[in-house]
Write a structure and sequence with these properties.
D-Maltodextrin-Binding Protein, domain 2; alpha/beta; 252 residues; 9 strands; 37% helix; globular
């Protein structure tokens, strides 16, 4: 009889767990690494406790808009304001049939900083110097007050809102230099810059103590979500959480 009771309790727990999982609401969000790292990973556990799970459809900014336009995701995300985001799609020749129905939501603001190795003596760069370095016209640190060492520009293979905005604002749309040390995503940049005294790159925020953020012109951008028309009830629940108690959990 005792074993029977234990068996009944176990079955009940399994059934309760199944009900909990079945009742969890999934919200598909088309977005990239910045949103994942700064927003959705930090809130994951708290959100799950409230019965909502975010399913990430990994997408570049324009791809995210296309998926929203086609109804393949409930929300799209990028680290761009709405005007820059739509302009990026237009400049790429992407037609969005439902863009007049798009609704944009600012989740948080984030700063793109220029990072270097902790041992690099350079303290600051002007916009002109930044542009010269990243376009390949300035190739030695001594040209900007540093050591006589070749500059190594580290850059992500996968573009993001942060990289696109940096090129637009800091390089005036000019192409990057040809000699780049590539890493997979923007989140991998500090790890590559940290051990390399000649390296320079960008990062989301200045909290990574492995590298040093230079004094340079600021680039502050919003992290923006978009829906195609009125959000579904579960997507609205996620938006409400992000604009409310979720804010305290975001990675700064």
């Amino acid at each position: 009889m005792k074993n029977c009771r234990h068996g009944m309790v176990l079955i009940l727990l399994v059934l309760l767990a199944s009900v909990t999982l079945a009742s969890a609401e999934e919200v598909t969000v088309a977005t990239g690494k910045t949103f994942i790292d700064l927003v959705f990973t930090p809130i994951k556990e708290k959100l799950a406790a409230k019965g909502t799970t975010v399913v990430i459809d990994y997408s570049k900014p324009v791809e995210a808009l296309q998926k929203i336009d086609a109804g393949k995701a409930e929300l799209g995300g990028a680290s761009l304001n709405s005007d820059d985001w739509l302009a990026m799609a237009a400049s790429g020749g992407v037609a969005l049939k439902n863009k007049d129905n798009f609704k944009f939501y600012t989740v948080m603001e984030e700063e793109t900083v220029i990072i270097i190795n902790q041992q690099n003596p350079v303290k600051s760069l002007t916009k002109e110097q930044v542009k010269g370095i990243f376009t390949g016209k300035i190739q030695n640190w001594k040209e900007v007050g540093g050591n006589d060492e070749i500059i190594v520009v580290v850059w992500p293979q996968v573009s993001s809102g942060g990289t696109e905005l940096f090129v637009k604002k800091m390089l005036d749309g000019a192409p990057l230099g040809k000699d780049l040390l590539e890493v997979p995503t923007i989140s991998d940049l500090p790890e590559m810059v940290a051990p390399n005294r000649e390296a320079i790159s960008i990062a989301n925020g200045s909290s990574d103590t492995r590298v040093r953020a230079l004094e340079s012109p600021r680039i502050v951008r919003p992290l923006t979500l978009v829906s195609n028309g009125k959000p579904s009830a579960k997507a609205q629940k996620l938006l409400d959480f992000l604009s409310g108690e979720g804010k305290a959990l975001f990675k700064k």
